[in-house]
Amino acid sequence: MNKTSVRFKNLNIKHPFIKYPGFIIATLVVVQLLFSATVNAQIDLAGWSNHWAYEHMVNAVNQGWCELQPNFNPDKEISRSELVEMLLRAVKIVPGGVTANFLSHVSTNADEDWFSDISNHRIATEGWLKTALNFGLVLPSDYPDNMFHPASPVSRRECILMIDRAIGRVYPATLYTQGGNLFTDFASLPGWFKGFVSEAVNFDLIIGYPDGSVRAGKNITFAEAITAVDRTVKELNQGIDTNIQVLVTNTNNTNTITLDLPVPAQIINQKIYVPVRSIFEGGKQLYNTPDLGFIWRPSDQILEFEYGVTFQFESGNIYYGFYNALLPEEDEYNSLPGEARLLNGEVMVPLIFSGQSANLRFTDEKNWDQAAKRLTVRIDYPHSPLS
After folding, report:
1. N or C: which end of the chain has fewer CB atoms below 10 A?
2. pLDDT value for 387
């Protein structure tokens, strides 16, 4: 695929001014190429300044998750491979990235060749489809003939499924009960799909056409896809604060570790969200205990691991699995002050609610120093419960 943008891979130069005498010249060339790519992208978009999706297209280019083709036309249909790659870039689950590498080891969809028609396509050779499968952006069950058809147009229905999965709304979508018609053609949609449409509407990810229809079976255009993805990014990234430090300490406060988070902490509705696997990995480091044996179930968006006993966390669910009360159990003793959520593929849980320590099994007091933006979590040694 010919693209306007210039892409650089594996550029890993350390101490350039000492070891690389030609670095300054090379840097100038790189800067010139990047500047040219940016100018070309701006020129391509300039002709679409009156387009209804112009603001979203500008965001896509500025944030780097949409690379424009030479003759970009926002009203042209987007292919299945283009949508998958664009959405993965937008939510920062890219091949070789921290979360993508984690999922490649723990996903129940990993290490399988699900499709028979993609072996030579760049979506396979560059790892995009494998990453999408590992995360659950794409599920094998979506394509029962085992053919992905990467160059084919993609429907609005597929896009709605993908953006719901990206923000972690699979579980709530399955709980949908018939209400009013959200669109004029809502009644004609498959029953299982109505919950996904409802979630996309609830989070302002999609809007209908002027006649009030959603047209789920219609092929989606670049403009429509870019708009949906841009709204997805906005929803995911709310409340991110890269200055928040998260520390874990043992029960007698004699040892403390500052966590290296795969994604930043978030503050949403007076709740401070942290990637849950980081908390318990911190406990493992503190007590030098065995690996946690993570398992990620893409179709359910459930993260499971062993910390003395089995834990399960499901995006969109206020309850979590603990010991012998595993999901889909609803147990008030194993509940969070808010639903678990996803941020760029990581399951996030609220540890502070309105400045107070929130409930989470095997963790004790959680202290939030607002001035220093430092959250300290006391975590227990992993053991079987007494009862």
Report:
1. C
2. 56
